[in-house]
Predict the 3D structure of the following.
Amino acid sequence: MNHLDGVRAIYIKEMLGYFRSPIAYFVIAVFLLGTGYFFTYNIFLTGIGTMDSTLQNMGILLLIISPVLTMRLFSAEYNARTMELLMTLPLQTWQVVLGKYLGAVSIFLLMTAATWINLVPLYLFGTPQTLNIIAGYLGFILLGMTCIAIGQFFSALTENQIVAALITIPVLLGFWFVGHLQSLQSSLLLRDLVAHLSFALHFADFIRGLLRSEGIAFFFAVIACALTLNTGYLQLRR
Amino acid sequence: MIVLDQVSKSYGSKAIIHGISFDVKQGEIVGFLGPNGAGKTTVMRMIAGFTEASTGKVSVCGFDMATQRDQAAPNIGYLPESPPLYDVLDVTTYLRFVARAKHVPANKIAEQLDRVIQACHLEAVTQKECYKLSKGYRQRVGLAQALLGEPEVLLLDEPTAGLDPGQIQETREVIRNFGSKHAVLISTHILPEVTLICQRVAIINGGRLLAVDSPSGLQQRAEQSNSVLLDATGDQNSIEQSLRGVDGVSGLSVRPHPVRHGVVSIECLVQDMDGIESRIARAVMAAGELYRLERRQPTLENVFLGYVGHAGGAVVTDLQQEAA
């Protein structure tokens, strides 16, 4: 028996669930509308031919949109009493957590790919720096994967989807804006700490075209922590 | 196949289940009876692996659910109290998901789907989304998912709730067929269901196991504390006095007959049934006139109510308590 079979079963169920309900369409539509607005504003109204500002705006938009995608992941299972099925099927808890996570990440990647349409006019009418765009998108994908892992964990804590979203949004905003506390800290250690925890500062490096291992490790560490906490919490519920 | 050994469950300091022990063998259907809040669902969940016992041991097919849940889980088919359906998925897609999650080989999924769809009579709704299904169909889809993967043990929490009489009969047939080779534990409120399909009954109340026996065994046990009903005329006090003197009568309930004026209806709780009717009849006729006398046959319902502590109607004076 392959361990990935269980992950695959959950993943397929999740993907079917997304596309047979309005959630995925709604989230993708709102995200693309927002991204389109920011792109139009940044490129055509300010006349700056890069994706830097648009990616920055997309990052903030993601902090609000991703909880809408993740709020139902476990909360809906509790509400529909399907958690009892998931936890009694011959699946390990981590398989359920990973299957759901990969499903949400797939939707996120799909909506990220849809924003590449913006690159067409950029390349037609400007001379953008391709490496910066690739690094920026890589950072955006890591940021999105991190937001989803955090949102999924909070979704496991409550049966109420709205509560799950309302907890996730301030936490994500906190991780985004924590970098601003740098200037308020006299201690070098604390300044370093808030800089390390800041989504915005790490993401800014990617947008500038800097692929720093520190930033990549940070995002993967947060993802691993959130998914481990998620699995641990579900096991504790037994 | 299912063994519970001194199983207890507590949430914080509150104990829900107190030291329950019983087993379900292969080829046996056991009914799990108890009023609402008795702890039936908690016990079912512990056997299914949804929650863990605080103390004691739950084993399924020889695997300890606390340490070997992964080995035990493929052997368990579980229908929770509320059918666990994904509303946006159609019935076939839902069942295919469960089959995949139960690690049914890809080349056998279609065959197993056909089998459970046929067994649960779901042919008419295979393409319907679950949210469009009636309560009866939801219950049957829930049962179908439990049957997938050919489990050795079937745990059914209220399997016939919400079904019409025809569907109930079909579902019982499915359970009976399955139970002839495997182990089945059914939690239910429907007492005739237990008599019809279960070889043994476990009665639970307040988280404690009160009795485990065959339905007929429980009825036989209850006969020892059965009752005799009679209608009589005459001086009520004299009749009561006379009845209290009868050896084997342990309690009396006296009330006016609901229709006939001047007639009293008396229920005598009796310990020993040998010749008790004639002794009671003689006692009544010594003090008044006897209109009717019948022995109340114990039903499973009486047995159940007796165990879970309901008076079942009339207030009965317990002579032994009075004497004490």
